[in-house]
Design goal:
The protein is of the alpha+beta class. It has one domain. Helices cover 15% and strands 33% of the residues. The strands form 2 sheets. The chain has a 4-stranded mixed sheet with strand order 1-2-3-4, with no helix packed on it. A two-stranded antiparallel sheet has the order 5-6. A hairpin with a 5-residue loop joins β3 and β4. It is globular. The N terminus is likely disordered.
Length: 100
């Protein structure tokens, strides 16, 4: 994994959206999560599933702790205040097909 470089603006807020393969390895999930959550300017980390409608969200709270949310309903939305964005799961997965 490449080293994470500091932003030009140390007060800038950052969101990372990552699409994992259908069968991610423990290294993919755990190591990346540990590294990303150490970035001081990271506010939101989204893990998007390819094999079912699911987005896992890690949101930084004011105290530096992280809030985990698991969003799986197509009628739900994810609000990302740091970048002024709202993602509807129905839009994210609009053209996706899933095996039962």
């Amino acid at each position: 994994m490449p080293a994470i470089q500091p932003q030009d603006d140390p007060t800038a807020h950052m969101t990372v959206v990552e699409v994992f393969p259908p069968m991610p390895t423990i290294t993919d999930v755990c190591d990346k999560l540990d590294e990303y959550l150490q970035i001081p300017t990271l506010d939101t980390y989204l893990i998007v599933s390819q094999h079912r409608p699911q987005i896992q969200r890690y949101s930084r709270l004011d105290a530096g702790q992280w809030l985990y949310s698991n969003i799986t309903a197509l009628n739900e939305e994810i609000v990302i205040p740091a970048i002024g964005c709202t993602l509807a799961l129905a839009d994210v997965y609009r053209k996706a097909t899933f095996d039962d």
